[in-house]
What we know:
Elements: H1 3-138, H2 145-156, E1 167-168, E2 171-172, H3 173-179, H4 188-196, H5 202-207, H6 210-214, H7 221-233
Antiparallel strand pairs: 1-2
Helix pairs in contact: 1-2
Amino acid sequence: MSPDLEEKIAQLENSLGQEQQRLEKLWDAYEQQEKDFNASLDRINYLESDIETRQTMIASLQELLTERDTKLRDLEIARQRQGKIEAKYEPRIKEMQGIIDDQTEKYQRLLSITQEMEDELDLARKSLHARDGWFNANISSLESVSEIIKEWRNIQGGKFPEVKEASGPGGGKSDFISSIAKIKGLGAVKAENLYDAGFHTVDNLKNASTEEIASVVGFTNLSASKVVKGAKEL
């Protein structure tokens, strides 16, 4: 083989090698572009999905806002109606409150009158008790007729004979009456009835039940509860 031919073959082989290298670089570049293109497609798909999600969220928020606005309008309408109802019935409410206050005052006056009537009833009972005692002690005897008649007239006039004061576990009757004199609505007559019924100290009243006090002559459940409450406040 001649030297010229060998040189040409070498040149061709060299050119072929360079062309092959160029083609390999082009192929690598093509593959990289393919990868970049696929990555761009994936990114585009992700963004489209994200856009759809955001649009769904926006639609949901718009629905919530519309629902909220509807509720606010309904509340405003209800508030206006409530205001009209209040304006309509406020005079009636004030009128009814005035009636209640008036009835309360009447009830308090009636309660006070009832208390006074109870005291008068107690006085009448004591008078009757004194008269019965006088009959039991004197009707069988005709001695000292003038003195008996005088004493009877005194009883009829409200002047009762002095009764010897008994002394209970807590002291004398006068001490007991003075110790509970501050209880509102409790007069001397009722205090004596309590003493005669076995209540000789303030502690006896504090520890007593309403029913026990109410069983004493001259007391009702209402007045008995007042006595128990008053005794606890002493």
